[in-house]
Amino acid sequence: MSSDGNGDKILDSGHHHEHSSKKALLSFFGEHNQGKSVLDIIVRVSLVTLTSFPGEKDLQGLTCYQLLHSLVQQKHICIHLVTLNSWHELATAFSAEKTLFLLDSAHQRSLAQTLVRSASGMRDSDTSSQYVRNLMGHIATYIVELSNKSNFKSIAQQPDILLSVSCMLERLRGAASASEPRTQKAIYELGFSVMNPILVLLEVYKHESAVVYLLLKFVVDWVDGQITYLEAQETSSVVNFCMRLLQLYSSHNIGKISISLSSSLLSEAKTDMYKDLRALLQLLSSLCSKDMIDFSSDSIEIQGTNISQVVYFGLHIVTPLISMDLLKYPKLCHDYFSLLSHMLEDADVVTKCLRAVQALASYHYKETRNGSVGLGAHAMGLKDSNGNLQEGLLSRFLRSLLQFLLFEDYSSDLTSVAADALLPLILCEQSLYQKLGNDLIERQTNPTLKSRLANALHALTTANQLSSSLDRINSQRFRKNLTSFLIEVRGFLRTM
């Protein structure tokens, strides 16, 4: 018992000591600008670490990712940070010191992000923007000049050129990921100035998977940080650039894997493709976000900008490259289906999908009534590699559409077009419809609600003199039936 008491005293003493230490530190840093002096020491030590110990990657990693990175997380610290001569010496070294170009590429990205993020401590937006221009301007100049060289293709594979390009792209990516409202304009200008050079680099380095990935990640981070702030003309420029990037990526078959590769090379190629595909999906998602969050003062329709065209083209490129094996990567799977979900929330997209289902089901129904095969095996179902019969196309559509209408969230404006698709599906798959209806009824434990559901399902296909025709009058009758059916049962079904 005495030992427990001593333990409590030790713990209390430890907490008291910790509290006293924090109080002393806060008191010291808050009086007579001692905190600013400590900041200065930290920055100077960091500068020495980065410039004088080129082979110490772990030490440099701690400096970039933890020490310097932590200094720019709070604006009130940045306000003091950007007034220090040591901080401006670090920024100057970043721009001009050759030793810092020998840092690990990921460290350079982190350092660029940290230096740009410190601009939040500047007194106004103009000062912040000029700081970013001074910090990053040399990188844009280098990339533009390099891409314009007449012999660029012949020197591009030289180790020093390849290293420089990779470093510059990492720095651009770091700056792009640090974008915030007061530096947004400067970072947009930075990205805009290298649009064409980026396309040249993609053309030249199309077989260098590491460089391709860096290019894509810079574009992803840049677009993600900019798209919601851009005015119509700027948005048009960015969207057109993304379209050209996607076209170039597709034209060179970048990302496609040869089946003749050895197992080790095949595994490496799959990893490269996984990274590329994730980057492309993230780019498409960023473009889609313009529809949800838009801080611009005018409409993109003014410029005739069609973001959806770019997104669909991107999906046209990406989807054939995504295999079942690649979908085993959780992050890729999440990004892919998140993008599809976002697109399918668009009422116009859903309407077009339902119209397509209506056309398929109507065609099959009319053809089979006339004695033809219609969609044939695609409607009847196919056997998989194990010999198991898989449900046909129309059966799957019927299940999905009923699930959507009864249990999902959607606009009531879709009810009519959904009815037009549902009627031919029911006529094609009557036995499945009866089974699904019976399953719903059996799942309902409340006798009153079970009776209501049974009556509503019966009325859906019999009320208003509904027939088995797909003419306009019968379709209008079914629309009324479906509306009444959903009003009657959707409320209590969604609480099951």
TrEMBL record:
<keyword id="KW-0963">Cytoplasm</keyword>
<protein>
    <recommendedName>
        <fullName>Exportin-4</fullName>
    </recommendedName>
</protein>
<keyword id="KW-0653">Protein transport</keyword>
<dbReference type="InterPro" id="IPR044189">
    <property type="entry name" value="XPO4/7-like"/>
</dbReference>
<dbReference type="InterPro" id="IPR011989">
    <property type="entry name" value="ARM-like"/>
</dbReference>
<keyword id="KW-0813">Transport</keyword>
<comment type="similarity">
    <text>Belongs to the exportin family.</text>
</comment>
<keyword id="KW-0539">Nucleus</keyword>
